[in-house]
Write a structure and sequence with these properties.
It comes from Patiria miniata. One of its GO terms (biological process) is DNA-templated DNA replication. This protein is mainly β. 15% of the residues lie in helices and 39% in strands. The termini are far apart.
């Protein structure tokens, strides 16, 4: 049987059967599963059709699998904190992760941390690159949607000033739940969804609000088809709304209700989930819609007829559904990854270069070849011993007796902090007299 042209990836919060599953959504067959841990919402990426990356739930870990390999254990990358969302650039050279209120940017081929963006006030909930990778869009629990110019993020600054966002959209009244970028690069349209029961359509070129869609319940996920004829909004009541973006007359604000389906096909409703719809994805030809929900099911819908084709059962709440072209070597277990993915470092590139130390630059996804000879293993041991000896020599040369140790610096910092508190207390007492 020939492999399908397009497959669907899904994850659930339990991780009982698998972490990531690849489905033939036409037949409902599970083509391949990847076990170990569980993935959080908006935390699944496919790199170059060779690797799968997912952010663990409640842990500062990113799981990685070589997609072509079967029966393998996932590799792990330790991050500075719990990853709330994950996104990869279209050319697979950059990986962005939301960690608390900051956005960390890594280069995938070297593992260097290129930038840390810290303009959100609360946890970052969603990230999305444009189709040409020129912009990064982020949403957070602070009700803000920010647009970042990728070139300004990567450009080194001698004064170490933080990068400023290109646009800050503050029209939402409650936390952002999802963002979606359309086709068109710097001139594309962006849709943001929020718990305030609205989806807002933005023009990326000018930063202006094009239209505001108001729904009956909080919006948890959003997506558009490739042609951007329709917008799909998954809500907390389990309904999925399909909105015609080219309906006339043109209005700045449109109210979409499940009890008022228009005869002119301005909007329609997909009914089938019993709990909030957490994720949506549309196939490349725009005829199939995939939805995941907290009711432990992923549903496949025919867009034109609004009929449910099939239901894929999971053991936990479905956190991600993604349509992707079928990787060339998905079913070939003998193939080997060629993409140079390395473990992500936990410090900025400038800090690492100043310190003169490599903070963990080992390849994170290399799997030992079972046909390696004894001579190769001996050479590998020799290289490891030589590397450890060089590192030990560097540590001994850098720890000079005149330089204060870390413990001394921490004690000095604590002393200065106590002094500052006493000075503040004395100044407050003088002001109160």
């Amino acid at each position: 049987m020939a492999a399908p042209m397009e497959v669907m990836l899904s994850t659930d919060a339990s991780g009982m059967l698998w972490n990531v599953c690849i489905w033939d959504f036409h037949s409902g067959t599970a083509l391949q599963t990847y076990k170990g841990g569980s993935s959080g919402p908006r935390g699944l990426c496919c790199l170059s059709g060779q690797f799968l990356m997912s952010a663990a739930i409640g842990k500062p870990i990113i799981y990685i699998w070589a997609l072509q390999k079967k029966e393998q254990q996932q590799q792990r990358i330790v991050c500075p904190g719990v990853v709330s969302c994950l996104a990869a650039s279209p050319d697979n050279t950059l990986c962005a992760a939301g960690i608390a209120e900051k956005i960390h940017i890594w280069q995938t081929c070297s593992g260097y941390q290129l930038s840390v963006l810290s303009h959100h006030y609360q946890t970052v909930t969603c990230l999305c690159f444009t189709d040409d990778g020129s912009h990064l869009v982020s949403g957070g629990e602070d009700n803000l949607v920010m647009v970042w110019y990728t070139a300004s993020i990567l450009q080194p600054d001698s004064k170490m000033k933080s990068c400023e966002p290109l646009f800050v959209w503050s029209k939402h009244a409650l936390p952002i739940t999802d963002v979606h970028c359309g086709i068109g690069g710097a001139r594309s349209r962006v849709v943001s969804a929020s718990h305030d029961q609205t989806c807002k359509l933005w023009d990326l070129a000018t930063g202006q609000l094009l239209c505001n869609f108001v729904f009956d319940s909080p919006v948890c996920s959003v997506a558009m088809d490739m042609a951007e004829y329709h917008l799909f909004a998954g809500c907390s009541d389990g309904n999925i709304y399909q909105v015609n973006l080219f309906a006339s007359p043109v209005q700045m604000e449109r109210h979409i209700s499940k009890n008022k389906e228009s005869e002119e096909m301005e909007s329609s409703v997909f009914r089938g989930h019993s709990k909030p719809v957490t994720c949506l994805s549309v196939s490349m030809d725009g005829t199939v819609l995939a939805s995941g929900s907290q009711d432990n099911t992923a549903c496949i819908w025919h867009v034109n007829s609004k009929q449910k084709i099939r239901t894929l059962s999971h053991k936990g709440a479905v956190t991600n559904v993604v349509f992707t072209p079928t990787p060339a070597n998905l079913l070939d277990s003998r193939s080997k990854p060629t993409f140079p993915l390395q473990s992500f470092k936990r410090h900025l590139l400038s800090a690492e270069s100043d310190g003169g130390r490599n903070m963990g630059g080992e390849i994170a996804v290399r799997v030992p070849d079972q046909e390696s000879t004894v001579e190769d293993e001996d050479r590998t041991r020799e290289r490891v011993l030589i590397r450890e000896a060089v590192k030990q020599q560097q540590r001994s040369s850098t720890n000079k007796p005149n330089e204060p140790s870390r413990q001394q610096l921490e004690q000095e910092l604590e002393r200065l902090t106590q002094t500052n508190r006493l000075l503040f207390k004395a100044a407050a007492d003088l002001a109160s007299r």
